[in-house]
Design goal:
307 residues; alpha/beta; Rossmann fold; Helicase, Ruva Protein, domain 3; Arc Repressor Mutant, subunit A; 11 strands; binds adenosine-5'-triphosphate; binds magnesium ion
Length: 307
């Protein structure tokens, strides 16, 4: 059983309302947001609120699969279509019939794959690799990306026509640091969850631990929070999580604890890494925002062991 999706902040409650409204529609929806914000959970809610809820929810991580494999995974192939294709195989577009196909990290697919996806979205048919016959598909297509696809379109790495097809409606999941009202309720729910799983009598966080969580920038969002809490629950000695149990890298927080003056170099490092995280690792943009050259940024990251 998955923990229920928690939403306390206004941004998140509005997003869940929009998700519920949009779920029954058959439209393609693009879910965007930084890594770990909950894009896949939102996509599942869209599926569960649709008339396809009895059908499969099939997620494909388009960014993690080599192009040739992705093609046969999605479209299927006939026997002998390529070396190793010993048997005929149906693709996920066909396998998800009656359900939802979730194209995760769609911003990472190659130009030739973008063209193939565009064709499927336009024609609503697929051709198995090695075959000329068109087969109709019956799936709702949802997609997600951590990238800003409008920027990718502007710099030529993503097709404009595919962008418009995918982004009929966009649901943007805000980063955790932009919805601080969610942090402590999420953290408490995660503490109880981990305590139960690890069979530990821990039920709360200290005030300082809570403050620490609120000041962390959470570049890895809810997933990072989950991991931090899980480790804290595993490590905690007392009946609640203390600030010392939180294995957060203090240099990635922007706030400077008054009792511990830091060197200028440490502050610079923390600031650079925080801005880099905010830009999802995008170095050019980070360098521009910091007002330094990208070679300088690279040199500094290398010195921090982060390049
Ligand atoms: N609002 C929330 N309430 C409870 N748990 C959440 C919430 N949002 C995200 N999570 C949890 O955080 C983790 C990451 O969520 P999910 O996989 O949906 O994010 P994602 O945006 O798809 O991440 P990635 O970019 O890494 O693929 C999951 O374990 C999910 O259950
Ligand atoms: Mg995901």
């Amino acid at each position: 059983m998955q923990r229920p999706l928690l939403a306390v902040s206004r941004a998140m409650t509005e997003l869940l309302e929009a998700t519920a409204r949009l779920a029954p529609l058959e439209t393609t929806i693009l879910v965007t947001g930084e890594t770990g914000v909950g894009k896949e959970r939102i996509a599942k809610l869209l599926h569960q609120g649709s008339r396809r809820r009895e059908g499969a929810f099939v997620a494909v991580n388009c960014g993690a699969i080599a192009e040739s494999l992705l093609e046969s995974d999605l479209f299927g192939h006939v026997r002998g279509a390529f070396t190793g294709a010993a048997t005929e195989r149906i693709g996920l577009f066909e396998a998800a019939r009656g359900g939802t196909l979730f194209l995760d990290e769609v911003g990472d697919v190659s130009p030739s794959m973008q063209l193939k996806l565009l064709r499927v979205l336009q024609e609503r048919t697929v051709r198995r690799v090695g075959e000329t016959r068109e087969r109709a598909i019956d799936v709702r297509i949802l997609a997600a990306t951590h990238r800003d696809l409008a920027v990718c379109v502007a710099n030529g790495s993503f097709r404009r026509d595919l962008f418009y097809r995918l982004q009929v409606i966009e649901l943007r999941v805000p980063p955790l640091r932009d919805r601080p009202d969610d942090i402590l309720p999420l953290a408490r729910a995660l503490v109880l969850d981990a305590a139960l799983r690890f069979d530990r009598a821990i039920s709360d966080l200290s005030k300082e631990a809570g403050e620490r969580l609120l000041s962390h920038p959470w570049p890895g969002n809810v997933r990072e929070l989950e991991n931090a809490i899980e480790r804290a629950v595993a490590l905690a000695r007392g009946g609640r999580i203390e600030v010392g149990d939180l294995p957060l890298d203090s240099t990635s927080a922007l706030s400077i604890p008054p009792e511990a003056p830091e060197t200028l170099a440490a502050v610079e490092r923390a600031h650079i890494l925080a801005v880099l995280a905010r830009n999802e690792g995008h170095r050019e943009r980070t360098a521009t925002q910091l007002g330094i050259g990208s070679a300088t940024l690279y040199r500094k990251l290398k010195a921090y062991g982060a390049a």
